[in-house]
Amino acid sequence: MISIENLTVRFGGVVALDHIGAEFSANVSGLIGPNGAGKTTTMNVISGFLDAHNGHVIVEGTDLVKLAPHKRVQWGLRRSFQKEQIANDLTVRENLMAITDHLRGARVEKRADLERAAEFAGVTGILGKMGRDLNTFERRLTDVARCVIGHPKMIMFDEPAGGLTPEETERLGDLILGIHDLTGAKVLVIDHDVELIERICAETLVLDFGKRVAFGPTSEVLRDPAVQAAYLGIDVEEEHA
Amino acid sequence: MRSTTNTIWAVLGLALILVLPAFAGGQWVKIFTSTTTFALAAAGAGFLYTRLGMVSLVQVGLMGVGGWVTLRLNHAFNFPFEINLMVAGAVTMFLGNLIALPALRMRGLYLALITLMFAAGLDIVFTAKQFPNGAEGFWGVGTTFAADMRRPVVAQSDAAYLRYTMVWLVIGFVLIELHRRMAPGRAWALIRKSEAAALASGVNVTLYKTWAFGLSGLLAGLGGGLLAGSLGLLDSATFRASESVMLFALVIVGGARFWYGAVIAAVLFRVVPGLLNNWGVDADLSLVIFGAALLHAVMTAPDGLAGQINGAIRTLIPSRKSDNKGAKA
């Protein structure tokens, strides 16, 4: 259970997130909304890159907001970025080790864990390849491996399907669906690709202008007139009238 | 490929350590010794630049601090040279950590400016207080004094001392390489990619940035201490802020991605002016040469001269496919 309570973020006078609340109980949940809705802000607050003015993010009894960013990773938080962050001058293996380096545990265990994560994401064959030589999809897969390594409890993907072909997106979707069985972690996915969200996310939170528009089972949420209004931009005049 | 090149370099390095001190005569032994000490500092600046993308313009200033501490301890106590050197390294490591504090908030040009200001501050202190030469008092500067600088037991002669300094340089390179291959190196690579990526991987960015500056400071301090041991007396003119800027520029010319880039940088820094002097040309001409070399590096050789040498070696020795990228240490 990922429980977001009353989450508020302000940049000066701009309210980027306005008292957001949601309780994700599904294994894979979605977070959607138009540009500037506050999706990435939400993710950055949960990661600890931004300070929340108010609110809590409680996962398995731990309030993440209170932890330093790198402590959140030790606790079991993983995330990917819109633009993947694979270090070019490290091999894929080293990129994965960069995460296990900062986790507790014996060396042998960490190695086995790394192999398992690589196997899962399908990057075992390219473990020795340098980051700079990877193509877009290989980078994404490495990102997935980075996320499932070291017994994560919560994983966030920020637009994982960006720049991928439909076939690659489908394979990525399958991978994300398999994460819970492998690690037991709860997954939160941000994407513009509504098809992907519909396929893999059981529950979805919709944001617009920093406010919660809808939350619930994905298929219901996507049928919600308010959500369609936010996405398609209809009814704007009526709302203002 | 990787191990072959590394073996070639190791053999070359060993040969140089054995041969160079034996054949270099008179003034050149001293010049090579100081070249080696500056290579230590250059290695520190270079690794900070390539591994973390941070510019430190205070390396030569920190060398001055290392030299000051070594001289101070030498004249105040009867410790062996190594102890003095270690303390000097520890002091500059700590100073490096201090400089890292603004580095936690600033990036790029702004950070470079902060380090430059630090160098300017040291410059002023060195000019005002000079370096201890055995006189009384904390600053230990007297007009007629010139107390003995004790050298390590194993390296009393100039030639032996050059060899001794070269061994320290090798230790410095090994230290950097070990860091690169282990957890700090990976953390630094992530920090260079982006701090967000590092944080999201559980890297304690504060710790690892401080650590990097500390290591870079340590190398500069060791270099300064070794230089003090070579000359016995130090002059504030050696450690001007402008020298730090020059050394950094030459690190770029030499090629910061490669360890021998630091050696090239130091050779340009110390040997070229010496050569010009030998030929009866004004040594300031070297500034013109360095300027042109820097332009060349920035425009056509992003990995510096070392990068070009590495490229040449790779065309000469047919590589076994993609593995040669690993040789870019």
Automatic annotation (TrEMBL), chain A:
Alphabetically ordered keywords of this record: ATP-binding, Nucleotide-binding, Transport
List cellular component terms (GO).
Answer: plasma membrane
The molecular function terms of the Gene Ontology recorded here are: ATP binding; ATP hydrolysis activity
Please give the InterPro entries that the UniProt record associates with this protein: AAA+_ATPase, ABC_AA/LPS_Transport, ABC_transporter-like_ATP-bd, P-loop_NTPase
TM region positions: none
UniProt KW Lyase keyword: no
The cross-references to Pfam families, in alphabetical order and at most eight, read: ABC_tran (PF00005)
Q: Tell me which SUPFAM superfamilies the record gives.
A: P-loop containing nucleoside triphosphate hydrolases
* Record keyword ATP-binding present: yes
**Which residues are in the ABC transporter domain?**
2-234
Q: What is this protein called?
A: Amino acid/amide ABC transporter ATP-binding protein 1, HAAT family (TC 3.A.1.4.-)
Q: Lineage, please?
A: Bacteria, Pseudomonadati, Pseudomonadota, Alphaproteobacteria, Rhodobacterales
UniProtKB/TrEMBL annotation, chain B:
Residues crossing the lipid bilayer are: 48-71, 83-103, 109-128, 159-176, 211-234, 246-273, 285-306
Q: How does it sit in the membrane?
A: Multi-pass membrane protein
**Compartment(s) where it occurs, according to its Swiss-Prot or TrEMBL record:** Cell membrane
- Name a GO molecular-function annotation: branched-chain amino acid transmembrane transporter activity
Q: What is the first-listed, main subcellular location in coarse terms?
A: membrane
Top-rank taxon of the source lineage equals: Bacteria
For this record, the Gene Ontology CC terms, alphabetical, are: plasma membrane
Q: Which UniProt keywords apply?
A: Cell membrane, Membrane, Transmembrane, Transmembrane helix
Under PANTHER family, the record lists: HIGH-AFFINITY BRANCHED-CHAIN AMINO ACID TRANSPORT SYSTEM PERMEASE, HIGH-AFFINITY BRANCHED-CHAIN AMINO ACID TRANSPORT SYSTEM PERMEASE PROTEIN LIVM
Q: What is this protein called?
A: Branched-chain amino acid transport system permease protein
